[in-house]
Predict the structure of YcaO domain-containing protein.
Amino acid sequence: MPALRTCRRHRQTTRAVAHQQTRNPRGGLGCRQARRRQDMRPSDLADTGDRGSHELFLSEALVPDEPSIPSPPDIDRGTGKAVMLGTHRVVTANATWRRARDVFSIVGISRVGDLTMLDEIGIPVWQAVRPNAATLSVSQGKGISHDLARVSAAMEAIELWHAEQARAPHVVDSITDLQPVLTYNVRTLHLAGGSLLTEALEIPWIEGEDVLTLSRTLVPLEYIVLNDEPSGDLSAPLFVQSSNGLASGNSVAEATLHGLLEVLERDLTATVGRSSPSYVGQVDLDSIEDGCSRVLVDLLLSADVHLRVTDCGTDGIACFSASIWSVDFPFVFDGFGCHFDRDVALARALTEAAQSRLTAVAGARDDLPFSVYRDVQLPNSAHPPWPPAPVRSDVRFTDIATTCRPGIEDDVRAAASLIAARTGQSPIVVDLTHPQVGIPVVRVVGPGLGMGRQRAA
């Protein structure tokens, strides 16, 4: 069975169930039928209220009722997994949402809105807006439910605010003088083109922690801070500015895991589309038999979207690239996901691909290249312009291992060990949590890891 398919009439029962599962009490559907409704109101597209204004995307059979919501101190200390459907978290999405909503005025979030209905696919995508942001003013979030997508957008915006504020007490010194406390090779970070970094150059540093040994170390402040505002500093950049590894969570451990999986994902997918490493393979979509990923695949195919899923995983962890294209929107949009749970990894890739497409549809991002809009005006083709097929084909999704562990901290150690095995250097975590906000935010740095692309955050 070929791995690349369009919306053929397959799995009729599964598809019908998937469509029914996306139906909500307001009468909407999570597929193209929803776009034909004539009674949608502008108020349906944006809401910052509590649960009830947006129902779950998947059926309650897949997404059970949320347990009682713990207080913030309990959230900070939690390391056991309370949610394991589409994501692994120590508390539910609504617990995180209530906490995030309380700090909107501090981080400058003026509104959070639902973009899902702007596209015919129906996968939940939300955005959070910070009009006075020093970097991106619009952040996107996606998920298998509106609850998850809404809180994802808010947390993305909160993460960026923390990176903009990364002015913690730091030291100014050279690599040579700091060598005794550096646990890694600074030159294996992502240097800017023509970087003038030398061993003797004195630069600001911020404190970090080796994830495996827990020893203290230092990371160049320029590598951590994100700020696009003009400054009086005319010196050339030493490092590539990136949000790679910037992550938040309900606990420091959860945020650290998120960051570790992101830097590992970008290393594993750095060559996808440019070469075909032996570990890369094309996934047979028919082998995705159940779980959140099956529902997401059916939604994409039902919207006449061409889909290619590439297996990029290795070393005991699942990692996928998902590419989507349609005749109605003839541009390839990619999504990526990495996790110890194969269903979570693929769901992340599929939802991110849908988010990338909706980002272009919404047109609110300042960092989108003009080519996204220029190229869709070219004559339509009946076939997607996929890159060359991977070496391996027809990889069965069910053959890809799920190796997740019972606790978040267990996954943190496993992910850090995988990175250390790939690079010979332990990853570093910089705690950016702001005391006034109280939501754990970290920046994970993986010296020696690749970074082939940037996500539309």
Q: What stands out?
A: The two ends are 35 Å apart (CA to CA).
